[in-house]
Give the backbone structure.
Amino acid sequence: DAKTTQPNSMESNEEEPVHLPCNHSTISGTDYIHWYRQLPSQGPEYVIHGLTSNVNNRMASLAIAEDRKSSTLILHRATLRDAAVYYCILAGSGTYKYIFGTGTRLKVLA
Amino acid sequence: GAVVSQHPSWVICKSGTSVKIECRSLDFQATTMFWYRQFPKQSLMLMATSNEGSKATYEQGVEKDKFLINHASLTLSTLTVTSAHPEDSSFYICSARGGGSLNEQFFGPGTRLTVL
């Protein structure tokens, strides 16, 4: 299973954009890049996913490097409710298994 | 998005007893369900993968006789922790795949198990 590397923690001011990086240098051609976030004592919540092209949805944007060895989750305007642990996960079209790394704990400062 | 529920949300039991946790996909049919365990301040650890009507596939190091998984229908999977001990106290989370895009998983809210 391909591994992902994320910073342990990041801080952001409220109302400012946040860029959460993820390295996945061993990604295979069929691996999708998924992002989830988890609030305390809750199950992970889907944020966004992509394969090769950049993706946008109402929650965030996902920027994928051309060589696909890294990606960045972009929260355009952080709010206090965005404070959570963000996980970047690779999942191939064949296995569907998610292997969670340590994730990035995002603190949003008022 | 697709909704996954878990029941109970929390449970306290005595050492040696068995506890059953249910995971339901409410508005889609789940071809595959997954069970995770999460200890405080740690990440989620995949325990097993279950497909409807077939035996679950357990990850290395997870005792299949202790954590019994049944996936009897496309909307329900159960995890039974048999002869629970204090070290089994954890946050158990299920997820289901089948309602979204290619391989997206939707997670339940989790069940906190405390074994006294």
User: Anything to note?
Assistant: The longest strand of chain A covers residues 84-92.
